[in-house]
Amino acid sequence: MKNNVIKSNVSLLLAAAIWGLAFVAQSEGMDYIGPFTFGAARCFLGVLFLIPVWLIISRKTYKDVPRAEVRKTIGKTFKVGCLCGAVLFVAISAQQIGLVYTTAGKAGFITALYIVLVPVVSSFIFRRKAGIAVWISVALATVGLYLLCMPGGGFSVSKGDIYVLVCAAVFTGHILIVDRFADEVDGTLLSMVQFAVVALLSVPFIFITGETPSLEAISGAWVSIAYTGILSCGVAYTLQIVGQKHASNPTVASLLMSMESVFAAVFGWLILNERLSAVEFIGALLMSGAIVLSQIKLPEKSK
């Protein structure tokens, strides 16, 4: 069981690292194409990448499983995948639109507000209690994210901020849905189905919003599309689903995934020559400390 938890934590942290770099790729991709075109392209590529992966994995996974059980699992996976896809479409689209009107730093902070929303929703709606260490971790991570992404201390709400706030709220629902069904579905197939749904839902909005994609524009954004499609969609979201299967609870999972903001700052420094200030560095340390603390089980108070 302990090994499964370790594997879960590693999977979620790796997903966070991939998503952190995706902020850079998404921002650059928006220089060429619109948000729905970008969303459709990246998700369609993610599905193409996952099809052969699932076919290889499924041969081993379902080798000795009765056909009736296989059909039941695949059927349920498609249903949950459609639900996750619809939710994820709203989250991805809102974030992508938000990046047009706000900075990557503010987008990173607001998106990661799911670390606060997940335990709140989980506790008050689903009656799932989180330990004191987790709640302290949430507080530390929130302060750390603010220092990391908003070093100047100013916080003004723009049109883009509202879109990204919607993304954070909806992504909270996605985390809780995955937490609820992760043990009952095929993780790789679920990832493939949800991105197929996102791609299909994005297409009509390309025309509704008046986006005019061209082969020249798409080819200009091919690096961003390839990264976000293959790694961010195909790999990272699959790691999220697989990782949440053995996560101790959804709050800890959200804390681990919120490290994407730390990785975004690191990759911004490495790729875009953006340097971390002293305040940003303190924020990164607080985030890292929150992750460590969330994994520590404090002794329960005796009756």
Write up what this structure looks like.
The structure is a single chain. With 303 residues, this protein is an all-alpha fold. The protein has one domain (2-294). Helix content is 79%, strand content 0%. The protein has 13 helices and no strands. Helix 2 (35-61) packs antiparallel against helix 8 and helix 6 packs antiparallel against helix 13 (278-294). The chain is globular. The mean pLDDT is 81.
Number of domains: 1
Residue-averaged pLDDT: 81
Total beta strand runs = 0
Count of helical segments?
Answer: 13
N-end to C-end Cα span: 28 Å
Principal-axis shape equals globular
Strand content: under 5%
Counting helices, strands and paired strands, the structural category is mainly alpha
Calculate Rg over CA atoms: 19 Å
Low-pLDDT stretches? none
Order of helices and strands: HHHHHHHHHHHHH
Estimate the helix proportion, in percent.
over 70%
For the largest beta-sheet, the strand count, sense and barrel status come to:
none
In short:
This protein is mainly α and 303 residues long. It has one domain (2-294).
Key structural traits:
single chain, 303 residues, mainly alpha, 79% helix, 0% strand
List the helices and strands and how they pair.
Blueprint: H1 2-29, H2 35-61, H3 67-101, H4 104-111, H5 114-124, H6 132-149, H7 159-181, H8 187-208, H9 215-220, H10 222-245, H11 250-257, H12 260-272, H13 278-294
Helix pairs in contact: 1-10, 1-12, 2-3, 2-8, 2-10, 3-7, 3-8, 4-6, 4-7, 5-7, 5-11, 6-13, 8-10
